[in-house]
Amino acid sequence: MNVIDVHGLVKRFGDKTVVDQVTMTVAKGEIVGFLGPNGSGKTTTIRIMCGLLTPDEGEGTVLGFNIRTDSLSIKREVGYMTQKFSFYEDLTIGENLEFVARLYRLKPLGEHVARTLEDLGLTSRRDQLAGTLSGGWKQRLALAACIMHKPKLLLLDEPTAGVDPKARREFWDEIHRLASGGLTVLVSTHYMDEAERCHRISYISYGKMLATGTVEEVVRNAGLTTFVLQGPRLDQVADALQGRPGVDQVAPFGATLHVVGSDRKKLEAALADVEKEHKGVTVSPGETSLEDVFIQFMSGSKDNMAKDNKG
Amino acid sequence: MNDLFSFARLGALLIKEFIQMRRDRITFAMMLGVPLMQLVLFGYAINNDPKSLPAALVAMSSDPYTRAMVSALQTTGYYRFDHVAQSAEEAEFLMARGDVAFVVTIPADFARRVERGDSPQFLIEADATDPAVASGAISTLGTVANQALLRARGMQATAAETARGQLEVVVHRRYNPEGISQYNIVPGLLGVILQMTMVMMTSIALTRETERGTMENLLAMPSSPLEIMLGKVLPYLAVGAVQVVVVLAAAKLLFGIPFIGSMSLLLTAVFIFVLALVLLGYTISTIARTQMQALQLTFFFFLPSILLSGFMFPYRGMPDWAQWFGEILPLTHFLRIIRAVMLKGAELPAVATEIGWLVVFVALFAGVALVRFRRTLD
């Protein structure tokens, strides 16, 4: 049985459809990355899954509980980490953990709190107000608080926003350690390197699920071709390439230029022309990255929205 | 596991709330300091029966009758003649400037008329822009003036004789024979203070969680609407209890307000009243989206409560529709109870209806709050 199994989720705020026919399945022990630009509906989808929002359409189960009728049961077995730090800043670290432990009726209380503080390495700072913690520590505290009751599913909403690379690395090591213990994780993120640490990713844009699968699958299914250009005056070459048929993206990477297109024939033709016009430029086949795919998705879905608006 | 209610979860919420209350020093100080400050300030300041009001005298002659009349007015305690005007124009000016509340004019032929047995007249002009100021000073006037006149003519004995056989009206000022304003104001202040602090504090209870972003987390954890409501409401019930003790102690020690009735009856009524107030505040909290809106709604409720409940102005003086409006304010009923129990020694049967009203408010507010509570973020 899948831990998350939802289909056809629709959520509207006013006349704006924020989540549009989202279907998603996540198996036990999987770490699934949930990607998409700002305002694409990631947070709303996660909130529907943990019972904080009722979908306008669609059905599904989380941990076998109906998302419409069993939200209390879901709440007990899900750990949800909000995007913004949402523990009490005027309570100390210890008091926050005790509060959570009491709400979940964890017994014995002191032991649970002490162990969590120990795991966090925060034992010496248990009497410090949570509001005085730095971003990285707040995030660790929030994670610790939402795994204290040993949930079966962890929903993390952009957990590493504003956190330094080392803390992010440690955070992800922790997530993998938990997943190997059987915990299922759905994590939304903006970072490509984080997406690549997931077993599977789902890409959502303007409420619509555009792609899902492993990183390799998503990249392969996108059907993009990438070439790497090297040579002098690449800025002029970039200008010359912009807008030519077959050229979808032109992006400088250090001393090279990445050119991406979805129509291989047209792209090759365009590059052949540019090669002739600009002396010394060499074209070699490159590897399409996840980021290229996402940027392609983003520009593509913007077009869709523009069309929708006109229609 | 019980979904609807668990003492452990309620305990978690209560402990959290008390810690937050303790940390928020200014709010905490306000909850205890404000009642005391208001009580002392208003208790000593407000007076419904003002005395020793400045008056101007325009006396055309200084015969014994005029002097007798002036001293009689002074002994009522209402008039303080600190201006002697030479002319009616000067007196008019003093009143227009607000220097005096009364102008007493005793005409030159006053003495002659008294002696001739004509009906003598003198004029008192009162500044009635504030009717309350003038009323007490004028109401006692008739008898005082007549007696003074009779005394001045050496006719005390005859006065008693003339009075015999005439209609006699006996007035008893029950429960407050000296007409001390504080007897009315101080018990009322307990209601007003509770009304303000209790509703205000609880009205921002949920909106504060929403604004700080902690509401999302609270809703994502297993806590039921009933637990959240009680978790927010009970701590303020405790604060209310402290306020009640402070105000009642001050009423006794500072103002010497008599306490005739049953303390346990009063405390029962106070408890139900405070419960109604915190539930009202919590209901506001479920309606308002921001703390600012919650405070605005609180004040929207607060002003009518003060003005139409009978705290500041006589309830029976209001038109019927306003009295009806007053009936839907918990403070109106509480004021009746506390005045009845404290000052009149009323027993349960006398205040049962009013207590019944308060119970209805409790049930109503609790019901609305639970229905209005948004369990989701929709």
What does this structure look like?
The complex is a heterodimer of chains A (311) and B (378). Chain A has helices spanning 42-49, 71-77, 93-103, 109-120, 135-147, 165-180, 192-195, 215-222, 234-241, 264-277, 290-310; strands spanning 4-13, 16-26, 31-35, 57-62, 65-66, 78-81, 153-157, 184-189, 200-205, 208-213, 225-230, 249-253, 256-261, 282-286. Helices cover 39% and strands 27% of the residues of chain A. Chain A has 11 helices and 14 strands. Mean pLDDT of chain A is 88; it is low at 303-311. Chain A is α/β, with parallel strands linked by helices. By secondary structure, chain B is mostly helical. Chain B has 2 domains: 7-46 and 179-372, no CATH class; 53-163, abc type-2 transporter like fold. Chain B contains 17 helices and 4 strands. A 4-stranded mixed sheet of chain B has the order 2-1-3-4, sandwiched between helices. Chain B starts with 6 loop residues before the first helix and ends in a 6-residue tail after the last helix. The model of chain B has no long low-confidence stretch (mean pLDDT 86). The interface between A and B is medium-sized, with 29 and 30 residues.
